[in-house]
Amino acid sequence: MSEPFIKPFTKAEMDAMRATTRDEEGLKRRFWDKLRRVAGRIPFAEDLVAAFYCATDPKTPSRVKLILLGAIAYFVLPLDAVSDLLPLLGFADDAAVLAAAISQVASSITEEHRAMAREALGEAVSKAG
Questions:
Q1: Spatial separation of the C-alpha atoms in residues 35 and 121, rounded to whole Å
Q2: Distances from the Cα of 62 to the Cαs of 5, 55, 56, 59, 109, in angstroms?
Q3: b/e map of 41-50 (b: 16 or more CB within 10 Å)?
Q4: Quick one: which of 42, 53, 89, 105 could link to 64 by a disulfide (CB 3.0–4.6 Å)?
Q5: How far is the C-alpha of 17 from the C-alpha of 99, rounded, in Å?
Q6: pTM, whole model, 2 decimals?
Q7: Distance CA 15, CA 73 (A)
Q8: Where would I find the DUF1232 domain in this sequence (predicted)?
């Protein structure tokens, strides 16, 4: 079975992700700020937040954390293959990157991570509204 084609990141995207993931507190802050702004417009919000909780869980293996933090960094970065301001298409690239990351580490995202995500999304949406 062949692997599906996934567009490689540009050098600028890779440099930005490295810088973003080195500053974990900054990444967390930017993640929650952006999520509050867009949570109601993205259908993959629960998966994204569950991935965040998995990536920040001390029990999660380093390899899994790295994969998920890369996808989360792509979500928060202002550099995007498709601008988040475009209706319908704006978050398509973010969803694709997240889906690719989750497909690699799905067994590490627990029901506990998902429950925390549902709770956090309820709070984020109520604060944004």
A1: 9
A2: 25, 9, 10, 9, 13
A3: ebebbebbbb
A4: 105
A5: 17
A6: 0.72
A7: 11
A8: 64-99
